[in-house]
Amino acid sequence: NSVANMEFGGVFMNKFLNRGNSSGQERLTTDVFQIATGILFQNPVQMFALTPNNLTDAPEILIDFMKEIPTTWDETLYIDGYPGKYSVIARRHGEQWYIAGVNAQKDALKLNLSLPMLSGQKVSVYNDNNKKEAVLTEAKVGRDGKLVVTMQPNGGFVIK
């Protein structure tokens, strides 16, 4: 939604779709997919569907990240994607770039991203490991602006 605001339903951190987060219908997407939607979908009122247990259940790196997601953007760029399969968008707030991607497919997806705005820079990468757990790593974008990222099935990433 690069033109206007929308409501996706909020970044949802419970593993199960109930208040107790203990059983029932399990959420299909990863935690990193969820935080990526906070970047992908523009909304001046950032929605986080949190229950009290999320403050202790969710990984601290994700709680900290949610505290800093901007609600306004100065620039938006399409990076890559295919309808119904995956999407990668870059948004700038002030001098800070946020690149977010989600994978709606049943298989992992490896992307060779072109990020000229981050050429030669060290970046923080929020991603899913093979167990679909959120991890935070550092990477260096090549001088040519290239960075390889792998998204897990129903997973996502955020680069900043």
Describe what this molecule looks like in 3D.
It is built from 3 helices and 10 strands; from the N terminus they run βαβααββββββββ. A hairpin with a 2-residue loop joins strand 4 and strand 5. It has helices at 31-40, 54-57, 60-68; strands spanning 11-12, 48-49, 75-82, 86-93, 96-103, 109-114, 122-128, 134-140, 146-151, 156-159. The chain has a single domain, classed as Sandwich (Immunoglobulin-like). It is 14% helix and 36% strand. The model has no long low-confidence stretch (mean pLDDT 85). The chain is mainly beta and 160 residues long. Strands 3-4-5-10-7-8 form a 6-stranded antiparallel beta sheet, with helices on one face. Strands 1-2 form a two-stranded parallel ribbon.
- SS-based class: mainly beta
N-to-C SSE string, H for helix and E for strand: EHEHHEEEEEEEE
Count of DSSP strands:
10
Strand order of the largest sheet: 3-4-5-10-7-8
Task: Give the C-alpha Rg.
Answer: 15 Å
Largest sheet: 6 strands, antiparallel
Itemize the secondary structure elements and their pairings.
Blueprint: E1 11-12, H1 31-40, E2 48-49, H2 54-57, H3 60-68, E3 75-82, E4 86-93, E5 96-103, E6 109-114, E7 122-128, E8 134-140, E9 146-151, E10 156-159
Parallel strand pairs: 1-2
Antiparallel strand pairs: 3-4, 4-5, 5-10, 6-9, 7-8, 7-10
Summarize the structure.
The protein has 160 residues and is mainly beta.
Tags for this entry?
160 residues, Immunoglobulin-like, 6-stranded antiparallel β-sheet, mainly beta, 3 helices, single chain, two-stranded parallel sheet
